[in-house]
Amino acid sequence: MDDLIWLQDWFTDQIIKDPDNVPRIEISTDNKSNWIVVIDFGNKSFDFEQHHNVSKVKSGSDWFTVSAVGNKFIGQGDASKLVLILEKFRETVGHGKKKSKFKSDKFFSSAIRDFIFEEEENSKIFLHYTSEKRIAEKIVQEGFRFTSSFDKTATEIKNDTIDLNYNHYLRKPFGEHVIVICISKRLYRKYFNLLNQGIYVDIRVEELLCESPFRISEEQEKVFTIHKNFIKGYFNYYEGNIVKNQTYNSEYDCPQFEKNLNLLIEK
After folding, report:
1. Is 51 helix (H, G, I), strand (E, B) or coil?
2. Residues near 158 by Cβ (< 8 Å), separated by ≥ 6?
3. How far apart, in Å, are the Cα atoms of 229 and each of 50, 193, 209, 213, 249?
4. I need a surface site. Which of 140, 153, 172, 212 has the fewest CB within 10 A?
């Protein structure tokens, strides 16, 4: 965010210095969800601190390229590279940071994306973001705890770049460790149909898939812990490392799940 604030301040400074030759700034995306940044100085040739063309391409979802020559800066990159492009512009005009705070986001790497969507055809997939590694490890070992609405803390996703990008940047402020929760569509449908038979509109399937009955918190809220077998594992989108749950089984079923329904009905 500090690069965007810097750009705003820099642009204001350009207006003050030469109001008749204000650079034109365009920040947009193309139809493939890639960023395009163009800063055009028009008839005024700008003395860039660095005149260069830089291009780094790791994959179709992990790349960027910048060009700073004559009177125009052009930067392009994948959905996670806007901050990097702005940082490169700062460097070209001699305002680079002494020590870059930029950390490469590996969320869209093939390894992480394959881990998330390995069973997408047969599973419902949810992501939960957390800031601490110890919390991620605890969820893998004990299951995922939530209160009230499951979908307020875990987001169902689909393998669509635009949708995935939107959800990632919406949830990213919550932390760099991402829990992957997978429930087989067959199992989900089984308990969804069971709920429909009784028209239990206030009960969600995820509230049934718990190893033990819910408890009541001090705030008088129901606290659920979805079974650890539905936790596929977690990854860190900065470091790129993936931790798999050895007991993961998206098809896991047990008698307690139906008992949980009866307990919820009674309450």
Report:
1. coil
2. 120, 125, 164
3. 53, 22, 10, 16, 5
4. 212
Alpha-carbon dihedral angle through residues 192, 196, 197, 200, given to the nearest 10 degrees: 110
Question: 92 and 50 in contact (C-beta within 8 Å)?
Answer: yes
Nearest Cα to 250, choosing from 184, 177, 173? 184
- In terms of DSSP H, where are the helices of 73-213? 82-92, 110-117, 133-142, 161-171, 185-198
In the chain, the amino acid numbered 216 is I
First to last CA, the chain: 47
Q: Residue 73: which H helix or E strand, with range? A: strand 72-77
Q: Where are the domains of the chain?
A: 2-92, 110-266
Kindly report, residue by residue over 23-60, the tens digit of the pLDDT: 899 999 999 889 999 999 887 665 555 546 788 888 88
CA gap 247, 41 in Å, rounded? 58
Give dist(CA 226, CA 211) in Å, integer.
7
Q: Residues of 88-123 as b/e, b for ≥16 C-beta within 10 angstroms?
A: bbbbbbeeeeeeeeeeebbbbbeebbebbbeeeeeb
